[in-house]
Structure of GDP-L-fucose synthase:
Amino acid sequence: MSEKKVILVTGGSGLVGKGLQTIVNTEEKRDDEEWYFASSKDADLSNIEQTRKLFEAKKPTHVIHLAAMVGGLFHNLKHNLDFFRINMQINDNVLNTCFQLGVKKVVSCLSTCIFPDKTTYPIDETMVHNGPPHSSNFGYSYAKRMIDVQNKAYHIQHGCHFTSVVPTNVFGPYDNFNLDDGHVLPGLIHKVYMAKKDNTPFVIWGTGTPRRQFIYSLDLARLMIWVVREYQEIDPIILSVDPDDEVSIKEAAEAVVEGMNFQGEVTYDTTKSDGQFKKTASNAKLRKYLPNFKFTPFKQAVKESCEWFEKNYEIARK
Ligand SMILES: NC(=O)c1ccc[n+]([C@@H]2O[C@H](COP(=O)([O-])OP(=O)(O)OC[C@H]3O[C@@H](n4cnc5c(N)ncnc54)[C@H](OP(=O)(O)O)[C@@H]3O)[C@@H](O)[C@H]2O)c1
């Protein structure tokens, strides 16, 4: 019998953490694993004493580190210093505490939005540090990139098994549906909800032509569970659907219209900017390890997210 794993998930109350909770409590339940999902109420991880107290109490053997200060474009633009400092503090506190307490494996979370602004496509894991990130979110991006630097340094100096994953745009139940501060897909879901309620047109910002790779939080959870159990590298791994499964904002909006059963008018406000046309990520490394992994069909995942939002409107972050 292998020794029991105690897996602590920081940021366990957010979009990605809730996805993990769902999968861990159903299809991936194992007797030799005990999972604990921490929120900022358990400990403010930018504070070292609170971080140590949480880790000393839970005694994790494995950690999935999701906790981060995250935000939309406008929040980032105005607060790059805060995003840098707070995320650096959180990551340094978590990783150093893991080292001091002898945690066997740590899986932290980077993001495809931290890659160089000027790059070639598809982007892959080797390109994280190849040039400055986009100026709008450089504080967040550099703090995230430093996780990869820390992972390598802990490995070289102390032999630690600290690694990271790089998800593309995540969506699903418990997302942030705020119209100003959230991501594109939950924003579209919220907008259709309002259009349906008020009997007004559904207005999509921009032309609808930009393309994005979306990953359902439950699929991301399945992949992260594989990473914490099986993945041996220190270098990051991109967790994304195949490049062929990239969808346009128009296709995403149509999936939301269908998922919400919206019968009203759909229009595009082309005076609004489109943002980057595409930022395709390669999942070749993931496919090398898991050639047969099946992602939930996009329309089905969107429908499930729409149903969750309608059912949980009162408690949803918005
Ligand atoms: N969403 C995406 O599209 C996406 C894409 C790529 C990577 N990621 C990464 O995935 C991870 C999780 O993101 P998410 O979308 O699940 O974010 P989220 O829904 O906003 O959740 C953030 C989590 O971090 C916790 N947290 C924030 N500040 C904290 C602090 N000072 N101390 C302790 N906990 C703190 C929050 O706790 P409370 O609930 O108590 O506030 C929450 O559990 C992040 O590292 C993010 O960078 C996300």
About this structure: The CA atoms of residues 61 and 103 lie 5 Å apart.
